[in-house]
Predict the structure.
Amino acid sequence: MALPPPALRRRTLLQRAAAVVLGAPAAARAQAGPATNTLVPWRPARPPRLEATDLQTEQRRTLADFAGQALIVNFWATWCAPCRVELPSLNAAVDRLAPRGLRLLAVNHGEMPERARRFLNEVPIHGTVLLDRSLSQLRAWGASGLPASFVLDAKGRPRHMAFGEIDWLAAPVLAVLESAVAA
């Protein structure tokens, strides 16, 4: 098995070090692994609680508001370069599977609404944008860095997760999303 390129090895080591220093839960650190184009299995008994403000309506939203739909819950921030890089493929994957019931909940990590809106004028997100001004949701979901993504099937069951940027149009990732929509 070939080693990943040096830049990827450095990035992986930095991600793991950051997870340890920032106090990510042991399970999250173990799952972080090297950056790849795959989602890894995620099997808590139920998803963590999610409560954040809808950027569009300014209403509090929870996972219950999206019951019956397969979801990608993606944590991001305007200052996060990997978040910006992965958004085009994330949007394309959501667009491809939206007719079959896939929704994107893009949870902004701690920023003011005006800043998020300016970013979205440049880089649109094809989903519901939620604001977590409390900075509590990312850690509640077991992540310590951005982007962090979690896939739930239409029955609300946790399926897969990814820490770091991924290519949402990669065949293994699309296969995972297909299975979440079909469940």
